[in-house]
Amino acid sequence: MVTSDSPRGLRADAQRNRERIVAAARELFMAEGIDVPLDDVARVAGVGKGTLYRNFPDRGTLLAMVSRDTFEQLTQIADGLRQAEDDPWVALCRYLREWSALRLGVLYDALCDHLPAMLDADPELREARLKWLSTLDEMVAAAQASGHLRSDVQAGDIALVMNLLQQRKPGHALLERNSPRFLELMLDGLSTHRDVPLPGQPLTVSALDR
Predict the structure, then answer these.
(1) How far apart are CA 175 and CA 166, in angstroms?
(2) Which residues contact 2 (CB under 8 A, 6 or more apart)?
(3) In a domain, 170, yes or no
(4) What is the spatial distance between Cα 70 and Cα 77, in angstroms, rounded to a whole number?
(5) What secondary structure letter does DSSP report for 191?
(6) d(C-alpha 194, C-alpha 143), whole Å
(7) In which band, very low, low, confident or very high, does the pLDDT at 72 lie, cut at 50, 70 and 90?
(8) Which residue range(s) make up the domain with 126?
(9) Does the residue 16 lie in any domain?
(10) Partners of residue 191 on adjacent β-strands
């Protein structure tokens, strides 16, 4: 994905290198964790170590850029589906399936402990995350207005469950293998044909920060 982080006037080959580095980092962070050696990131990206460090002088800078790229990718997918689908409920269901297929929740889970500090330090990362959460909020509101999504859930509920469905922690192998099945169970439970009240209070996107 092309990110908005590109410095003005960056040569096309330099921009491609940045994109390859971010893509390689995301792939390795998801597969091996965020402590993977940065030399491995350079190798998978097909660039020299000097190129990597010129673009991302430390791990924190690269983590923040991968996080921004993830939020921007999620927003881009959502915007495309909202334009492609007339039915907001169908758009939301397709979005959650594509989100799950990308396994980006695995990455979010790995970054979660570092995210508050990165958000404090990087206003562009905060903006990308807010835009994504606002987009998800709008999709949820539209699906509820259509009468297909139950009214006692919020975007925060959905975002948290999506990330739980994609965890790769010890003891969660069964959850990981059956993630598509459990996603469909979640979608069925979100539908208005389920009239059993949910316990507790809906989780808003602002509650995620608490």
Answers:
(1) 8
(2) 15, 19
(3) yes
(4) 11
(5) B
(6) 15
(7) very high
(8) 59-208
(9) no
(10) 149
Q: Is 117 inside any structural domain? A: yes
pTM (2 decimals)? 0.83
* pLDDT tens digits, one per residue of 8-60: 455 788 889 999 999 999 999 888 888 999 999 999 999 999 999 999 999 99
pLDDT in tens, 97-108: 998 887 766 676
Identify residue 30 by its one-letter amino acid code: M
Only one residue has tokens 């690269």, namely 62
Q: Is residue 81 part of a domain?
A: yes
Beta strands in the chain (DSSP E): none
What's the CA gap between 56 and 84, in Å, rounded? 36
CATH code of the domain in which 132 resides: 1.10.357.10
Nearest to 17 by CA among 49, 44, 51, 56: 51
The count of domains in the chain is 1
Rounded (10°) angle between helices 104-111 and 59-84: 140
Q: Which two tokens stand for residue 32?
A: 């091996």
